[in-house]
Design goal:
The structure is a homodimer.
Chain A (H helix, E strand, L loop, with lengths): L2 E7 L12 E7 L7 E10 L3 H6 L19 E8 L9 E4 L6 E5 L6 E3 L16 H14 L6 E5 L4 H11 L4 E6 L2 H10 L4 E4 L6 H11 L4 E6 L4 H7 L2 E9 L17 H5 L3 E4 L9 H13 L7 E5 L4 H9 L6 E5 L2
Parallel strand pairs in A: 8-9, 8-11, 9-10, 11-12, 12-13, 14-15
Antiparallel strand pairs in A: 1-2, 3-4, 3-6, 3-15, 4-5, 5-7
Helix pairs in contact in A: 2-3, 2-8, 5-6
Chain lengths: 338, 338
């Protein structure tokens, strides 16, 4: 019976999240009962949505309970099985949480999925060909509904969602402009991810300066915007929106630390007859199959080459997560557990 | 050849609009050419959107040119005709502007519509059974898409749009809660317009106080919101929105005087997966027939009893318009010209 190291939420952040909000513990993995599977995690996914779960206040999902294993997506392999559909050695994707092993009730619909690693590396199932990729797909295809020749903009451009968004939008004949933090990320966005241009928001002190850079990068204006960040970046994009632009509102990372961030000029939504929609991908699982098929194909064809930042060992998860919230990662943030 | 008094936009407002932005002039009505019709206006419609047109800045429609007759909807009768489809005495609806007469090219599609006054008073074609009514219809039916039993909220509740919105939403089995300025308007909203409740925003100093009143009036939360105002009222409504709420964004009157009004907490749009859409009814004329039929029927059945505030004479138009912007009118603001 292997020992399982876990990261629990020990206490809630006051303002910024800190490492002492978490606690690492060791427990024995329990014996399996009928229908259960023991999964050894190879990778844990770290994602901005987790910060929202750490708060007690109403967020876009249930709060993470104190004293329990932090929620999170995982990929790994089956090491013990009491379920006829899963064999030892199967590679699987699930929501195992911040721990080295998880016991999964494999009869629960959607609790576990097998991962085909013929053309797609296992870790990608946590990023470009996983929840973040499907998030990009849903926002682009179902909310923004891009037309060929239109201009799409995405913030957090080199993250897992942004990387997938760029490949999906290019495949639809759009001009795609990213917004990211720092010259290295911007260069990578254009060289490796297929962006037509990428703007370093750190070079801009206010929304007017950023908006001017957007005007140069988007000479025909902005038709679709995938929002991962909120705040000043969103305000700047709104100044360049075309009539009938669409906004997929997926994240507001800049406002997670307590104080809500205002939107400077909501009247622009009326002036430009914008359609804006907030969404959580887990409420739209009906698109999963179609989205995963396209994302897997883009990876296999070399048109989606996401980058990963990998930290080693379960005890590194809290610091890696805090770094993610500050934009220190480059591409999908993972924790390697083997 | 009758003399025609006109109100021109003489200069653009700096900040608040004032009477001296306008100028009244007298001109002769010209002789008609083939296809033209001379309409004597009975009523001129005054509407908040006109304030946007007075600015030079990008607004949700073209600027009103200086030195020209202010744009505006009118109802009246044909007094001279060079068009076979229109006879002297026909009652018509058009966009005649702030003047006593207009010469209309009746061949232009949509320039003139005949008004059936059997069951609907002529002036209603500028309000409940006109552009404002169709505006309410589009926002409710096409954007909010209400379900029976849901709770709808509308700001500027006793105005032309709000009055129609309430009747249309009640006809769909919704709870309808209005927001208006002053106890008289609120009492009228409940007694005459069919609102289940109406909140006087003047009794509330901030969004938290108003939001508390909304909680009482909307015990099941808010599923649909028709926004005519913006600012603090919208912020308060957003605090009470249910998951998957829809917002039809039609007006931001509070922000017209230059400085944009911020939205306090746009993250709520994500948290509650809200769909928000800005619109201008004139871009959706395909719904006109269906909307007008329902609105006319509601009036004929006594289920839509809009109130009107009528000022007398073309020279009263500027002051009546400035009063409208301050909420001094009660129901649809008209200028009677005969």
């Amino acid at each position: 019976m292997p020992t399982n190291r876990q990261v629990l939420l020990d206490n809630r952040p006051e303002g910024e999240a800190v490492a002492s909000n978490f606690k690492v513990v060791s427990v024995d993995t329990p014996a399996l009962t009928e229908g259960q599977v023991l999964v050894r995690h190879h990778y844990l996914s770290l994602d901005p949505y987790m910060r929202g779960r750490m708060n007690e206040s109403k967020s876009y999902a249930a709060s993470q309970p104190l004293g329990e294993v932090m929620i999170g997506g995982t990929v790994g392999e089956v090491v013990e099985s009491q379920h006829p559909k899963y064999q030892v050695g199967d590679q699987v994707v699930g929501m195992g949480g911040w721990q080295e092993y998880s016991v999964v009730n494999a009869n629960e619909p959607g609790a576990l999925r097998k991962a085909d690693t013929t053309h797609v590396p296992l870790s990608y199932y946590l990023g470009a060909v996983g929840m973040p990729g499907v998030t990009a797909w849903y926002g682009l295809v179902k909310i923004i509904e891009p037309k060929e020749g239109e201009t799409m903009v995405v913030s957090a451009a080199t993250g897992a969602v942004g990387s997938a968004f760029a490949a999906l939008a290019k495949a639809r004949g759009c001009r795609v402009v990213g917004i990211a933090g720092g010259p290295e990320k911007c260069a990578y966005a254009v060289a490796e991810l297929g962006y037509d241009a990428c703007i370093d928001y750190r070079e801009h002190k206010d929304m007017y300066s950023l908006s001017k850079a957007l005007k140069e990068a988007c000479p025909k204006g902005i038709d679709g915007y995938f929002e991962n960040v909120g705040g000043m970046i969103m305000d700047a994009v709104m100044l360049r929106m075309n009539a009938f632009a669409r906004v997929a509102l997926c994240g507001m990372i800049a406002g997670y630390n307590g104080e809500p961030l205002a939107m400077a000029n909501p009247a622009l939504l009326l002036i430009n007859r914008v359609k804006l929609e907030g969404f959580i991908v887990s409420e739209h699982m009906e698109v999963w199959g179609e989205a995963m098929k396209e994302l897997g194909t883009l990876v296999a064809m070399g048109k989606l080459k996401p980058r990963e930042t990998v930290s080693q060992g379960i005890e590194s998860a809290p610091e890696a997560f805090l770094g993610l919230l500050k934009g220190k990662n480059f591409g999908k943030q993972l924790v390697k557990l083997i």
